[in-house]
Amino acid sequence: MGVFVFLMLPVLAQDEQVSVEETPKEVAATTKKEGKKTKSEVKAYVSPYYSYDDDGDSVPNGRDKCPNTPKGEKVTPFGCPIDTDFDGMYDYEDKCITVPGPKENFGCPWGDKDNDGVKDNIDKCPDTPGVLRFAGCPVPPKKDTDGDGVYDDEDICLTVPGIIANRGCPEIKAEEKAALKKAFDNLLFETGKDVIKTSSYSSLNDLAKVLVNNPQANLHLEGHTDNVGEDDANLTLSQNRSESVKRYLVSKGVTEERITTDGFGESKPVADNDSDKGRSLNRRVVMVIRYE
């Protein structure tokens, strides 16, 4: 007995057409005829964020960290000009490309025109050799205003006769001398900073008590350093350390007006800077009681 298979085919409406698959050539011909672009004629979309290059340095704006680089300057992969000596000055504006220097001096190190050891940026007499204590100016002529045998440039009490041992100030009492010596011997700072170590507090407290109990006595503080580091940095550190001692004493009740400070950096050593011991002695804050 035979087997019959019935296939159900979709019924098409009158206006529907069944198209036979076209060959690639036919597709191309049809597309061209219809006025459409072929795949080869269509360009890939690129965001303006990555395609524009405002400063013409071949680094697109999308990753250019320095979009205003002058024309023709060599740049890094991120579009910034080259800084050969890493001093923060781009080579095109740096007058000393291979030597680091501050922007204030156009990327060059500060010089020393008069060869007196004081950099021109802090030298008030840049064309005349001088000393650091007088900001690069010559030491003034020797003068002794109060006639006590101590010249004015070393005399803490300019108008009151004193003794050489007390820097031109009157001789101090035994109690004051002991407090000064103890405070001086025990005064320590954190390395390279103007922060007083806590181990120094006790002796400074005793000095403060002596000053509070003797209101006629004033105190002068002088900061000094060794010769390690830059001159101007040492000068600043010495001044800041003497100011730190002043602030501490004022916090313990000594009137601010009774304490004066000064900083001399490395200009007045009391020992040789060629040894650890010598440098240690040169790092100090001198304390002088005076009556004025």
UniProtKB/TrEMBL annotation:
Keyword field: Cell outer membrane, Membrane, Signal
Give its localization: Cell outer membrane
A molecular function GO annotation: calcium ion binding
Report the PROSITE patterns cross-referenced here: OMPA_2 (PS51123)
Q: What is its main location?
A: membrane
Write out the ranges of the annotated region (Disordered). 20-40
Among InterPro entries, the record links this protein to: Bact_OuterMem_StrucFunc, OMP_bac, OmpA-like, OmpA-like_sf, Thrombospondin_3-like_rpt, TSP_type-3_rpt
**Amino acid composition bias (Basic and acidic residues), ranges on this chain:** 31-40
Where the record annotates domain OmpA-like, the positions are: 176-292
Q: Which GO terms describe its biological process?
A: cell adhesion
State any GO CC term. Answer: cell outer membrane
Please verify whether the record's keywords include Signal.
yes
Spell out the protein name for this chain: OmpA family protein
What is the source species? Rhodocytophaga rosea
